[in-house]
Amino acid sequence: MVSFLDLKAINFQYRDELMEAAARVIDSGWYIRGAEVELFEQEFAHYCGVRQCVGVGNGLDAISLALRGWIELGRVDIGDEVIVPANTYIASILAILESGLVPVLVEPEIRGFNMPAANLASALTEKTRVILPVHLYGELVDMPSVMEFAQAHKLLVLEDAAQAHGAAVGDRRSGSWGDAAAFSFYPGKNLGALGDAGALTTNDAELADIVRSIANYGSHQKYQNDVRGVNSRLDELQAAFLRVKLKYLDKEISQRRAIAALYLQHIQNSSIVLPSWDRSASHVFHLFVVRSDRRDELQAYLLENGIQAAIHYPIPPHKQGALAKYHDMQLPLTELLHEQVLSLPISPVMTNSEVEKVISVCNSWC
After folding, report:
1. Could you tell me if 34 and 27 are in contact, meaning their C-beta atoms sit under 8 angstroms apart?
2. Given this model, what pLDDT does residue 111 score?
3. Sequence-distant (≥ 6) Cβ neighbours of residue 50 within 8 angstroms
4. How far is CA 360 from CA 28, 174, 213, 352, in A?
């Protein structure tokens, strides 16, 4: 069986270093907001090319804490609107709602899956305050165009970079384009912890400071709570694990791109639509997503032939029970994508024979 994602094998590569990191934390006697978190924040900020990084509990919290931080700073008001792609994972939208803001769903681009800057104008109203571009599946949104639009209309930009660690345009990586960015380190991400973890990156020291406070019960000083906060802190053990794996992230991205290039070159089946990629650093292939109007048949055929493929995501957010008020929205491209997308296996531990098998089985499907 070609596994969709073998996390055990991925982490086994670094087992000795991960064990050493765990022992270091255990032996330190300090388990919350200690040296490992501080060092990871410095190292990840440097990797992204920003001045500030705040470790938090998970990626959803990273989004909501950034939005809440702007509210506390008076830059956004409760009830303001946030433009967000309609085909994102629901977490992006839940974070907006959790913060007391209003999501405005925008259709994606059919070939690249991301929200195009050209679609922003139609979503703009007098209540718009934030754009939340999502670098879906690992491909950077056209951030130069998004930032040009945002600056022209005096909007804040919060990157949802949960799937795009290391993606870049020119020498600027994800996490450094917007006013802030949210990252997830869920175990299956390209930079994955061994549990839940997340981070916010920014060049705005004031935002980083208030987010750090909100995430720690609204406190900078123990037992002194200045704002209404929550408990969302990156713990020492996950920070230590992430410090190990960050060293190998670029190598793993290169391996993912090499597999993607082979898929794009050799999968030749008119019933399978391949993703677009200009061979630049803008895509890190967290997922390799194809489309087919017979998606379920293709997934079943792959499984029958020993290949696990996954659907990201089967139900669009506006059709979920949690977002019932959006059920009547007309989003035909989003709905089409959710009916057609299928993610093929791609990971840094796939063997050449496994890659060849995926290609061969895809090509034999009819």
Report:
1. no
2. 85
3. 175, 176, 201, 202, 203
4. 51, 34, 53, 12
What is the length of the chain? 366
Q: Are 66 and 213 in contact (CB under 8 A)?
A: no
Of 69, 129, 135, which Cα lies nearest the Cα of 103? 129
The verdict on domain 249-364 having CATH code 3.90.1150.10 is: yes
Distance (Å, whole) CA 231 – CA 143: 31
- Of 213, 219, 216, 210, which is closest to residue 73 (Cα–Cα)? 210
Judge contact between 317 and 298, C-beta under 8 A: no
User: Domain locations in the chain?
Assistant: 7-106+115-246, 249-364
Stretches where the chain sits below pLDDT 70 are: none
Give the pLDDT score at 112.
87
Q: How far is CA 75 from CA 52, 153, 199, in A?
A: 19, 14, 21
Termini Cα distance of the chain? 21
Closest CA to 295 of 321, 279, 318, 272: 272
Beta bridge partners of 102: 81
What are the structure tokens assigned to 24, written together?
A: 């270091």
Tell me which fold the domain 7-106+115-246 belongs to: Aspartate Aminotransferase; domain 2 (3.40.640)
- Could you write out the three-class secondary structure of the chain? CECCCCHHHHHHCCHHHHHHHHHHHHHHCCCECCHHHHHHHHHHHHHHCCCEEEEECCHHHHHHHHHHHHHHCCCCCCCCEEEEECCCCHHHHHHHHHCCCEEEEECCCCCCCCCCHHHCHHHCCCCEEEECCECHHHECCCHHHHHHHHHHCCCEEEEECCCCCCCEECCEECCCCCCEEEEECCCCCCCCCCCCCEEEEECCHHHHHHHHHHCECCEEECCEECCCCCECCCEHHHHHHHHHHHCCHHHHHHHHHHHHHHHHHHCCCCCCECCCCCCCCCECCCCEEEECCCHHHHHHHHHHCCECCECCCCCCHHHCHHHHHHCCCCCHHHHHHHHHEEEECCCCCCCHHHHHHHHHHHHHCC
